[in-house]
Amino acid sequence: SCLPYEALSYVWGPPSSIYHIHLNEQSVPITKNLHDVLHRLRSADPRVLWIDQLCINQTDISERSSQVQLMGTIYTHASRVIMWLG
User: Fold this and answer.
1) What is the distance between the alpha carbons of residues 77 and 7, in angstroms, rounded to a whole number?
2) Would the N or C end of the chain have less CB density within 10 A of its end CB?
3) Phi and psi (nearest 5°) for 39?
4) What region holds the Heterokaryon incompatibility domain (predicted)?
5) Whose CA is closest to 11, among 38, 29, 34?
6) Per residue in 40-51, pLDDT tens?
7) Domain that holds residue 25
8) Looking at the domain assignment, is residue 48 inside a domain?
């Protein structure tokens, strides 16, 4: 019952390289690897991406733990899974 989405699988990379993006009118920190893949995937056509670093509240340990348990289902139900090796 959700919109079709693509799931992104990637290596976060070292936490020392932090970039910021604007998401829902907020500045959100992301790793360099995610920054690189978002630039590579950028398109004029709208798309829905599921990205763990952005879709899971990383500061809420309880949420993060429960969402990690669902990641198999999240990837299974994606219309496409994109792997980014860098």
Assistant:
1) 9
2) N
3) -65, -40
4) 5-86
5) 34
6) 999 889 999 999
7) 1-57+79-85
8) yes
